[in-house]
Amino acid sequence: MALPGPSIMFLLLPFDSLIVNLLGISLTVLFTLLLVFIIVPAIFGVSFGIRKLYMKTLLKIFAWATLRMERGAKEKNHQLYKPYTNGIIAKDPTSLEEEIKEIRRSGSSKALDNTPEFELSDIFYFCRKGMETIMDDEVTKRFSAEELESWNLLSRTNYNFQYISLRLTILWGLGVLIRYCFLLPLRIALAFTGISLLVVGTTVVGYLPNGRFKEFLSKHVHLMCYRICVRALTAIITYHDRKNRPRNGGICVANHTSPIDVIILASDGYYAMVGQVHGGLMGVIQRAMVKACPHVWFERSEVKDRHLVAKRLTEHVQDKSKLPILIFPEGTCINNTSVMMFKKGSFEIGATVYPVAIKYDPQFGDAFWNSSKYGMVTYLLRMMTSWAIVCSVWYLPPMTRETDEDAVQFANRVKSAIARQGGLVDLLWDGGLKREKVKDAFKEEQQKLYSKMIVGNHEDRSRS
Amino acid sequence: MGAAQSTSEEVRELVGKTGFSSDQIEQLHRRFKQLSGDQPTIRKEHFNNVPDLELNPIRSKIVRAFFDNRNLRKGPSGLADEINFEDFLTIMAYFQPIDVTMDEEQVQLCRKEKLRFLFHMYDSDSDGRITLEEYRNVVEELLSGNPHIEKESARSIADGAMMEAASVCVGQMEPDQVYEGITFDDFLKIWQGIDIETKMHIRFLNMETMALCH
């Protein structure tokens, strides 16, 4: 009997090289597909419609999954959807004055005494109001991610997930496999390609002499790389009213939900970015970009100086050959159900403002960046392991500041237009409340009103 | 997956102790977690995260009421450093509406509890009396937002109101008699026969699940 060892090895050898060959071929095929279906269309700005098809398929699967969950829940008599609440308490809409008068009327036995003075019962109103706000307040609600009413096979959006059926769990498991093992590496590869092309491309273009050719190339390098990044996130974007796109010498203003907003807008238009100089990878990208065309980057120390910022922006805007500036005036990421107060800085410059409304569809992946909860890298990973990012972008007609309105009123006007178009709630509160406390000016209002009531009348009384 | 859910055993216990329904308890638990930042207890600093509360002139008194041992039924005086969810519910329970199905005795008890909560808000040194100083303190706080009001006006308002309260409680006073302060019984006497407690409640919404419709 011959030794089985070596003969087995001889038998396996062709399989070995077969496997290597297969691997090589499949990788080549994969890369060619990648190139043909993703990168080349990105360069030319065309789309094969693959992502839309993907979206339709996903929707069908979600509908099926939700149906199964409902059926399962009915069988087990579980409560499936979270109770629909707009708040847990019914707040009284009466004003401060009415309520205090009412309290006093019911409390005071001295009906003859018409002039209200301070009474023990006045504290009731403020006490109750205080308790109400502790239980439920408008502003904090805006900052937690929107809650879904149907399940999109991402466990992170479902708080009531219970084991419903084997089929559903298998589907979910398959989803995890696809997302983490297939989509994620693909997306990371694309992102890597996009960013390196951006850095290399803009640096190369930077060496060219200034002129129309340089501008042309720069525009296309930027657009191409942003488009690749869009595909890296599998973002399915619908643009509306593209005729209103921002032009040179204008300021483009949009509501802010996540850092991805930049990529979404910049893949459809050529903008000058505004921002703080960062270190690390972002810094490399920023330095490369500015070689190809003038973006406005501020040092950390300059950011605090509002006049300097305003001056540089004004200079940029007045030069008609320079690109429209892209600014997010809310100052922080909001959870895409409402639009918060716009900071007035960008509205003081006096250029034409092109408002843009961005609304994400949370069904495929929640794009909101809760910066106090997740860091940037965690956030990007979450984005890349979602199914897709679906959003709509509306370009609104340009607005300019009227002669009789000041920067704040103009900012509010733009904000309302954006909120209306995107179907978002228009809130007066300052987005900065997420981190800072209420400015003292607002605090004074309630107290002033109450004290006016008491002291004003007290003075009347002492005079009479 | 999802947030940790308190066991139904604990919820039932809380329902019995505090009188909230299990849905309301679940909602309040979420609110508690939001305020505490997912920690098991709340401290005074956590109330800084409620922006609307900043507008309230007696903000510090309200926050203090949450940690007051008398309200938490943990002692005759002093402040707790932190409160857990059960304590949170205990304080919230002071603001439950009075059940119309309760009998007269229970109604009186509820009313007394609510008024006692308010009394504690005034009586900051826990000595059982609202002295002139404490009264002045409350008036000043309520009027503190307005920079145009001098301390003197606030004081005179407080003094005037205190005098009236004294006349209700003690009747005619001798010229050199010092009124020591409003005791809780006097406090109750002021509000006797007057339906104040309906102003001291917050209307909790009934949670109803959405109909499953296709």
Automatic annotation (TrEMBL), chain A:
<feature type="transmembrane region" description="Helical">
    <location>
        <begin position="188"/>
        <end position="209"/>
    </location>
</feature>
<dbReference type="GO" id="GO:0019432">
    <property type="term" value="P:triglyceride biosynthetic process"/>
</dbReference>
<dbReference type="InterPro" id="IPR045252">
    <property type="entry name" value="LPCAT1-like"/>
</dbReference>
<comment type="pathway">
    <text>Phospholipid metabolism.</text>
</comment>
<feature type="transmembrane region" description="Helical">
    <location>
        <begin position="164"/>
        <end position="182"/>
    </location>
</feature>
<keyword id="KW-0012">Acyltransferase</keyword>
<dbReference type="GO" id="GO:0016020">
    <property type="term" value="C:membrane"/>
</dbReference>
<keyword id="KW-0812">Transmembrane</keyword>
<comment type="pathway">
    <text>Lipid metabolism.</text>
</comment>
<feature type="domain" description="Phospholipid/glycerol acyltransferase">
    <location>
        <begin position="250"/>
        <end position="361"/>
    </location>
</feature>
<dbReference type="InterPro" id="IPR002123">
    <property type="entry name" value="Plipid/glycerol_acylTrfase"/>
</dbReference>
<keyword id="KW-0443">Lipid metabolism</keyword>
<dbReference type="GO" id="GO:0008654">
    <property type="term" value="P:phospholipid biosynthetic process"/>
</dbReference>
<dbReference type="Pfam" id="PF01553">
    <property type="entry name" value="Acyltransferase"/>
</dbReference>
<keyword id="KW-1208">Phospholipid metabolism</keyword>
<comment type="similarity">
    <text>Belongs to the 1-acyl-sn-glycerol-3-phosphate acyltransferase family.</text>
</comment>
<protein>
    <submittedName>
        <fullName>Glycerol-3-phosphate acyltransferase 4</fullName>
    </submittedName>
</protein>
<feature type="transmembrane region" description="Helical">
    <location>
        <begin position="20"/>
        <end position="50"/>
    </location>
</feature>
<keyword id="KW-0594">Phospholipid biosynthesis</keyword>
<keyword id="KW-0808">Transferase</keyword>
<keyword id="KW-1133">Transmembrane helix</keyword>
<keyword id="KW-0472">Membrane</keyword>
Automatic annotation (TrEMBL), chain B:
<keyword id="KW-0221">Differentiation</keyword>
<keyword id="KW-0519">Myristate</keyword>
<dbReference type="InterPro" id="IPR011992">
    <property type="entry name" value="EF-hand-dom_pair"/>
</dbReference>
<keyword id="KW-0963">Cytoplasm</keyword>
<dbReference type="GO" id="GO:0005737">
    <property type="term" value="C:cytoplasm"/>
</dbReference>
<dbReference type="InterPro" id="IPR002048">
    <property type="entry name" value="EF_hand_dom"/>
</dbReference>
<keyword id="KW-0649">Protein kinase inhibitor</keyword>
<keyword id="KW-0472">Membrane</keyword>
<dbReference type="InterPro" id="IPR052490">
    <property type="entry name" value="CHP3"/>
</dbReference>
<feature type="domain" description="EF-hand">
    <location>
        <begin position="110"/>
        <end position="145"/>
    </location>
</feature>
<comment type="function">
    <text>Functions as an integral cofactor in cell pH regulation by controlling plasma membrane-type Na(+)/H(+) exchange activity. Promotes the maturation, transport, cell surface stability and exchange activity of SLC9A1/NHE1 at the plasma membrane. Promotes the induction of hematopoietic stem cell differentiation toward megakaryocytic lineage. Essential for the coupling of ERK cascade activation with the expression of ETS family genes in megakaryocytic differentiation. Also involved in granulocytic differentiation in a ERK-dependent manner. Inhibits the phosphatase activity of calcineurin.</text>
</comment>
<dbReference type="GO" id="GO:0005509">
    <property type="term" value="F:calcium ion binding"/>
</dbReference>
<keyword id="KW-0966">Cell projection</keyword>
<dbReference type="GO" id="GO:0030027">
    <property type="term" value="C:lamellipodium"/>
</dbReference>
<dbReference type="GO" id="GO:0032587">
    <property type="term" value="C:ruffle membrane"/>
</dbReference>
<dbReference type="InterPro" id="IPR018247">
    <property type="entry name" value="EF_Hand_1_Ca_BS"/>
</dbReference>
<dbReference type="GO" id="GO:0030154">
    <property type="term" value="P:cell differentiation"/>
</dbReference>
<comment type="subunit">
    <text>Monomer. Homodimer; disulfide-linked. Interacts with SLC9A1/NHE1; the interaction enables an optimal Na(+)/H(+) exchange activity.</text>
</comment>
<dbReference type="GO" id="GO:0005634">
    <property type="term" value="C:nucleus"/>
</dbReference>
<dbReference type="GO" id="GO:0004860">
    <property type="term" value="F:protein kinase inhibitor activity"/>
</dbReference>
<protein>
    <recommendedName>
        <fullName>Calcineurin B homologous protein 3</fullName>
    </recommendedName>
</protein>
<keyword id="KW-0539">Nucleus</keyword>
